[in-house]
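Retro notes, item 3 of 5
We never archived the inputs for the magnesium ion complex last cycle. Fixing that now. Sequence and ligand:
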Amino acid sequence: MSGSISGGRPERVWTAVDDYLEGLFPEDEVLLAAQAAADAAGMPAIQVSPMQGRLLQVLTQAVGARRALEVGTLAGVSTIWIARGLTGPDAHITTLEVEARHAEVARANLARAGLADVVDVRVGPGVDSLAALADEGVQPFDLVFIDADKPSNTAYLQAGLRLSHPGTVIVVDNVVRKGAVADADSTDVRILGSRAVIEAVAADPRLTATVVQTVGSKGYDGFLLIRRRA
Ligand code: DHB
Ligand code: MG
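Structure as it came back at the time:
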């Protein structure tokens, strides 16, 4: 790294590092096409970054996950990363999306990825879809990724836990939000959602957890990483 980068503004440094890393670990045509379709549909550019997607894939593989659950599909970019980490002939991911037009883009992206048979995209409010899964008595999920409306994070965590087993790993996106999570006086409902879910996890004796602060092409944010041990 040149001195001008390492001595530059922090945001430039993060982005330069992600540019370097993404050059070493490039996205394939399927992911590039999924991202392009999201952009063409005018969807907000809030997908996980490529290196964050790889983290989801590595975690999914490390867990040996066969069944995954995602809350917040958007264009299906993170869905593809997680699906690519799943193990076994009956590998499956259920992903929940509140916006029908987002789900349509995601279904096309997932079909192009050859994952149409691996992924079930369900449209509707997340809490309703989660309740329906519980009512259906689905097998518990091995990995859960929560990346939807932030005020509902604790509701999604609790529903995810009901659909989990000891050993399940749960990841919650965007819990740091440029550091605003540390502001105890915040009235931003997204920050309140982050703080509530972190505090619920910290108080739950069944869970081992940490928060990893992240920087990179998506700025400064963080993942809440949880393992249900009992
Ligand atoms: C927002 C949501 C996300 O899931 C994300 O990764 C970044 C930002 C948002 O709602 O602002
Ligand atoms: Mg997110």
